[in-house]
Each structure stands twice: as C-alpha cells, then as structure tokens.
Amino acid sequence: MIDGPIGEIGARVDVEHIGRFTIARLSGEIDLSNAAHVEKELILGRGVAEAVVLDLGGLAYLDSAGLAMLDRVHRAIAQLGNELHLVAPPGSIARSTLTLARFGGLPIFESVGALEDAVTHG
Amino acid sequence: MTVEEPIARPPEEGAAQASRGQSAILLVDDRPENLVALEAVLQPLDARLVSVSSGKEALAAVLKEDFAVILLDVQMPGMDGFEAARYIRARDKSANVPIIFLTAISKDVENVLEGYGSGAIDYIIKPFDPFVLRSKVATFVELYEVNGELLKQAEIRAAHESLGVAQRAGESGIWDWDIVAGATYWSPEFAELYGLPPGVRPAFERWVDLVHPEDRRRIDQRLQQLLAEGTSWDEEFRIVHPQRGVRWLAAKGKLRRDADAKPVRFLGINVDITERKTVQETVRKSEERFRTIADGAPMIVFTAAADGGWTYANQTWLRLTGLGSVETLGYGWSAALDHSDRKRALARYRRVCASGKPLELTGPVRSADGETRWLLWQAEPQFSVDGSLSGYVGSAVDITVRKQAEERQALLAELSALLDEEVGLVQRLEIFVDFVVRRLDVACVIEVYRENGEVAHRQALTPSGLQEKRLDALPPQFVEATREAVASRNRVLVPMDGNGANGLGAGPAVTVPLVARGRALGAVIVVAAEGSPMFSTDDLALLESLASRAGIAIENARLYEREHEIATELQRAMLPAELPRPSGVRFQARYLTTAAELRVGGDWYDAFSLPDGRIACCVGDVVGTGIRAASAMGQLRSAVRALAATSAGPAAVLERLDAFAKFVEGGPMTTVVYAEIDTERQLVRYACAGHPPPLLVDRDGVRFLEGGRSAPLGCFGTTERVEAVEPLSNTAALVLYSDGIVERRGEPLDIGLDRLATAASELLVSDGGIAEGIDELVERMLEGVRQRDDVCVLYVYGLERSIFRRELRADPAELRPLRGALREWLEESGIDDDETYGILLATGEACANAIEHGQRLDGSSGITIELVLEADGQLTAVVRDEGAWRTPAQSRERGRGLPLIRASMDSVELDRSETGTTLRMQRKLRMRVVV
C-alpha cells in the first residue's frame, strides 16, 4: 500500500471500492524506476471486485516501462477472471503516451463516469 | 633671359664715385659679390651708386642724403630687409623713397605680401634679369628726376611772379610818332633803353633797324600790318644794347586814324622785360626738359590745374589710351577710365583735388587695344607763392602685373582651400580639374603616374562640364609634350602641325609637370578653346603656380593613401576573417574605418572558443592611427588569444596582457574589454581596461555592465585587474564596442552612452536573435557625424541556442531528477507543455534504455545526455551509453520504447558500435512567441 503523499517512489496509488468496482487512481510519475512497485501495489490492492478501473488521469509521466506494467497488470487480472478498464481523460499525460504508443487491447475511457455508463448500459 | 649668376665684373675704379649723376641709388646687400653684381648692372645708368652691406648702414645712408630708389636685399643677418624698410618708411625724410626688394627666397605669397606691406613698390626675385632690373631702377631714377625738375619749376614760377611786381615800377621809354607831320618824339628813358648815344634820335621808320636782326623781320611785318589795318600794338622783341647786349623789350602802343582811317599818330611805351624773359625762357626750357623726360618716361606723367583738369599728359599715357594730346586735356582723360570703375574713380579724384591733398588712387583703365590695365595714380599738389593750390603733378604706374599677381595669389589661395577640404587623391584631382576648368575656362586633364611611368590616376574635364572621351586618349603630340614636360620639369607647349592643329582641335595647348618634393609625379594638360589666343606668359605662370600647388596636395594625398592602404591591409590581415561559430553563441561584427580621414585606427575585435567550451570575446582600441597602431593592434589581439587559453578568467587575462602591452610599440594606453561567456551556466564574466562598458541587451531592456573596471593597459606601475560576473540569460545579447561609436566631438561621453542605450533598446531588444538591428544601430549612431575614429562593434547574440547537458549513472532513480531539470530547461526556453512532454518522453525512453544496458554491464558506466535547442526551435537530443542497444526482440516489454521515441521526434538515428550506443533525436519545436 503506497497511500499517502508521493514520496521516494514518485508515484502513488489510491484505491477506492465502489460497488463491484475497484477504482485505483494513479498519480505522480511512472517510469523504469517505479513501474514494478506500482504493479505490485495494483495487484495486491485490487480487492475482490469484479472489475478493476485504473484512473490514469492524475499521472504526470508515463513511459514505456509504465505501459509494460499496464500490460502485465492486465494479464494478471484477466487470469483471475476479472476485467481491467483504463480511464485517461483527453489531454492528459497518460492519454498522450497511450496514443503515441498506439496502446491497444484495452478500452480506454474518458472518465470513470463514462465507464460506469458504458458498463451499466452496455 | 635670366642668368643664373649675375655677371661678375670687377668693380671699376671708384665706380660709385665716378658716376656723378644728380640722383643716387642705394644698394643694400650683405653679400659683397651681390653688391658688385648690382653695381655692374646699374652702372650704365647716370646715377650715383651707394652700396652698403646691412640694414643699419642703409638707415644711416638715407639720413645723410636723398635717394632716387633703394634696392634692398630681403635676407640679411641682423635686421632683415623688411625690418629695414619699415624703419626707412617710418622716417619723414625717407618715407617716400621707392624701395625695391631683392630676394632669392621663394615666391611665397606671404613674403611678397610682407614686402608690399613694409613699403615695397616692387619686388625682384633673384637670380634677376639684368635688363629688367636696370629698366625698373631707371624708371624710378627718372621719376625722381622729374619730380626734382618740377620742384625747380615751382621755384622759378615764384621768382617770375615776384619779378612781375618789380617790372611795373621799372624803366620805360615813351615814343610819339606824328605820321602826318613825319615827326618822332622819344623820351629820354627811351634812349637809355636802347643805349643810343646822346642826341641821336632816329626817325620812326628807322626804329626797326634797332631791333635784333632775328626779330627785325617779324616786327617789321607786324608794323606794316598795324599801319595797314591795325590800331593796337603789343609786341615783344630783342634789341642789341651796345653795352648790355641783347635785351628783351615789350612795346605797347595805339595807332590813331583820321576820319578816312588814315594813320595819323602812333603812340606807345617800351619796357625792358629782359629779366622776365630770362625767367620765362628758363621756365620754358625747364618745361621742355620736363616734357622731354616725361614723354620718355615709362610711367604716365600728367599735370593738372587746381580743378583737376589736365594741362598736360605724356606720351606714355597717350600711347596707352590712344587718346590725342589735346583730347586728353581737361577731363578728356577720364574717357579712358574703365567703365566699371569710372564713376567711383572720378568722384574720388575730384574729391581729392578739391581738398588739395596728395592723391593716391588705384583703378583700371581701358587701353587702346581694349585691355584692362590697372594703374596706381599718385599726384602731388602744387602751390603758388601765396599758398593757393595751383594744380597737380602726377604720375601713374601700370600695376597690372602686381594686380594679376594678387589675383593669382587669390586664385591660389582659393585652390588651396578647396584642395584642403578633401584628403583623398582622386577627390583632389577632381577638385583641381574642376577648378581649372571653371576659373580658366579651358579643358583640363591631370595625370598622376606610377613609378614605372604608367598612368595611375587621371581626371579630365571640359568647360562644358563633360568628361570628354576625346581627352581619354590624347594625340601623340600631347603624349610627347607631356613626356617632355615631365622629363624636363618645365612646361611644354603642344606643337601645332602644318595646318595649325595639334590633334585636339586648333586651340593652344600646354602641358605642365606636377612636381612635388623634387619629383615629377604627373602632368597637367590644358587645352584652350579653338580660336583662343596663345597663352600669355602670365597665363602660363599662373598655370604653373596652380600645378605647383596641386602637386604638393596630390603628393600628400598619395602618401596618405599609401599609408592608409598599408594600414588597412595590415588591419584587414589582423582582424579575424571569419568569426567562429561556437555552439551556443553567434557573433556579428561591424568594422568601419575612417575612410573620409584616410586614417586607420587601432581598433580590433575578436571572438573565439576556449578549451572548456566557453566563448571569449574582445574589443580593443590602440591609441593612435596608421601602420603603427594597426601593428600594435595585431600583436595585442594575438596575445589575448594566447593568454585566454591558459588564464583563469578575464582579470588574469588582462593582468598578463598588461605586462605584454608595455613592451609593444604603441601598446601603452590601449583600452580593452574582454568577456567570457558561459552559455551552460548562463553567465558572463568580464573585465574592462579603460574601455567603455559593454552593453547587455535583454528582453526587459538594456543596461551597461559597469563592473570589472580598471585602468588602460600598459600604464606605469602595476594595475590590479578585476573582473565581474553577470547572469546572461538565453535570450540576452551583449554589445561590445569601441568608443568611436559613442564619442562625438565636444560632447561628454555619457551622452554618447545614453544614445547607444536608447538606440539599442529600440533596435535590439525585440531583435529576436536575428541581429538585423545591429546595422541599423551602427547607422543611427553615426548619423550626421563626420566619423573621426574607427568604429568597431561586436554583437554577441543567439544565446537562445541553449544546451542541456547531464551525465547519469546507470540507475533508474536518476531518471526523475533528470526529467525535472529537463522540464525546467525546456520551460525556460519557451517550449510549451505539449512539446515538453514529448521531449521528456523521448529523452526519458532513451535514458531508460541506456540505464538498462548499463545495469546489464556493470552498473558503473556513464550515460551522457545533451540537448541543444537552436534559436529557430530545432532541438537535437543525443544520448550516449557504453552498452549495446537492446533490440525489441530481446525484450518485448522494452519494445515500446523506440516507437515512443519515433512518435515523439521528427527523426531518430541509432548508432550502435562496439564501444556503445548513441541515439540522436531531432525535433523542430514551436517557439513560444515572446511579447
């Protein structure tokens, strides 16, 4: 659990459980130095929810190590029979990296609200 | 004909004493051989020659006696001729004695003018022409004698008048002849008058026999005429008195007639007028002699009545004016006055006559052949015994030559002044031909030759103001004449061929050599319009004077230009041909030599990279101009380069340069500003040795960097050198300059500095690193100023091309701080957030990859990151490591790195080698517009 201010690690994960969702809000910067750390945090903190939502809107930096980490988290959650959803608002840093890297295979939502709508009505 | 040495003749035995003419000439010369020569020349004149050898002796001589003329050597030890002349003039007795100066010294205007100023009436240059000298002196001797004669006449007239009074009370005899009666009465005095023996009384018919045989016939005829038809008798005749010899008698009488007009009685009186007659005769003879002298005199002589009307004018006047001897009398002579001056001259003449004062007047007259001659009139009033003005005796000398000499001097002075306005050779040639064409109304070509005789410069102009093609290639006659003139140093008239032409039309032409410092450096060719008369001696003399003046001016200009050429060459060789383009800085240098003044100052500028990557720049100013300054400048510039490489900062550089400058000729008092720019740390370290402060231009404005000041280089003693440091942002620029751009004559320096600051803040602040403003800046600073010093401006700008450089350990923990620093650098450089992220991402990916390599190897290898941002937004990022690039195949996860880099940058180059991997990425960024 790396709740609290962004310390040495440089990133922070805040987890919130809402209904059947576990929402993990990422902030700070994710790079080679802390991607593994964040990955561990996410997997351990996913709770019992059917779906895990990663909100990347608070990230100030996300590089290929971060993307690799997202890949691994996605695979791990999928193996557990759960779903992973990504939220990255347009114009956000994470959105830039995802776009530049043509990150595919996972739906990316503009906001948590949009995700809930999609899940509820989809 | 001029003889170089006066004919040296041994003085004839007592030559000075032997000539016993009534006039004396004083010869003054400190050199015995010159006196001997003068005596030899003047000996034929019927005048007494008095020779003395100093000004003092001359003064003593003029006190002792009167001289007709004084010949005075100008150059004498002790009292020179001018001084002696002033003393002679100051004494009443000798105030009016004509003085002729003899001089061997130049024909300089000053000397001639001083001569005239000290009372000279003429001026003879040695070596003199004996004939000219003799005739000039003769003129003055004759004038003196004429004056003497006139003086004597005045005495005679006075005697005559007193005699006239005596006469009325004198002896007289009466006769009475009764014609009808045939009787004659003679009074007793009559017999006495005629010396008749007592008792002898001739019949009147026999009276005529008493008349002098030479007058008898005339008197007899007159008597018969009287008897036939006259009534009044008034005759003068001579008789031969038995004791007293020939006597003059006057007879006055009346003849009475009867009603039929028949003569009946003749009554009259005889008076002895011998005394009066003698006086009259003397006067007549004297006047005759006066006229003979006057008519033969070379100067004009006239006499006038008290009202100014002429009563006599000599042949010289009549010949000059073409007036008749009668026509010229009264005021008839005034017809010859030049129309332009007649009114003034006449008014002046009448005014002087009315005043009875001596007359002196200068004015032009029109000669018989239509030429204007300038005359100097002088007339002395003559007075009767009772003190009333009886008239004037005057003379006039032709001073046309002197007048022309004055005009020539004025022309020369004008030319000199014009030539002095320009220092350039070509400009001076232009001025010269323009002047000659304008003032002499001739076509003019001036040529200046090289050592080998080739034409180096040439200017040609015709009176129409055109550079005529014809004059570009002169006909062979001209070329030949010019060559001859140059070789002989004498003017050469261009010969005419059989048809009266010279290949350039039919106008007379002459070539005059341009001589300066004993060397012929060119020639002046003058062509008069077709149909013009041949050049007069005066014309040629004038032309030679002008050419002589031009020769000196041109030679000076040539020397100036030669030196300027050498110095410019030297300066050019010593200034950097091209400024370096070290990364992070750009330079613009502006160097303006004082072309107008033809001087080369000792300003220099330089810019170069130091071994550690910092940039050194420098502007210096050596005292003085010319070759020496240029050479000193070159040495100091090299010294700065050498010292900068090994010294620790500006103060140390100046300290060592100071020691060097003391031993460079022209080095002392050099001022210099030296600065080292560190683009990475964004600061400038600088020091000023007596130099104006550098100007810092930033986006916020401008200010002078006034720290780091110390005295100029090469002063005595040891001067402590100090330096100052100043932040220098990427967007700033520096202006280093020499004082030529801020200094203006008669203005405090700080006004110039203010002007520079104002101009820079208007022109450079918003320059945006394009440096276009610098030309405008220089232009504005020199606007309306006659540039007197070199101007040197070094503009250091383009600092926006900033560099970001870091070294990383192979530790992922280094990544985040790196990004922090890079983000800050990009932000400062004005890169927007979007683009900043792209750069951070690409650089971060590259570094992460390098770190992974490093970790894989031994963890200690270094990683170098360098980002260079050009002013135009071109960004180049280079990341180097010592490991091998891991291909995507080796690591699926790491496979996203390179695509991310490629997506973020415009171009990516990967260079893998045994020793390491270099990733070079580029992207053109949008620069934030700074308002």
Share in helix of chain B: 25-40%
Taken from the alpha-carbon principal axes, the silhouette of chain A is globular
Q: Shape of chain B from CA axes?
A: rod-shaped
Number of strands of chain A: 5
Rg measurement of chain B, Å: 52 Å
Most extensive contact? A-B, 19 and 23 residues
- Mean pLDDT across the residues of chain A is 84
Broad structural category of chain B:
alpha+beta
Round the mean pLDDT of chain B to the nearest integer and report it.
80
* Biggest sheet overview of chain A: 5 strands, mixed
Q: Rg of chain A, please?
A: 13 Å
Number of strands of chain B: 36
Derived from helix and strand composition plus strand pairing, the structural class of chain A reads alpha/beta
Widest sheet, order of strands of chain A: 1-2-3-4-5
User: Which blocks of ≥5 consecutive residues of chain B have pLDDT under 50?
Assistant: 1-21, 156-170
Helix proportion of residues of chain A, in percent?
25-40%
Features:
heterodimer; A: 122 residues; alpha/beta; 5-stranded mixed beta sheet; 4 helices; globular; B: 931 residues; alpha+beta; 6-stranded mixed beta sheet; 5-stranded parallel beta sheet; 23 helices; 38% helix; rod-shaped; disordered N terminus
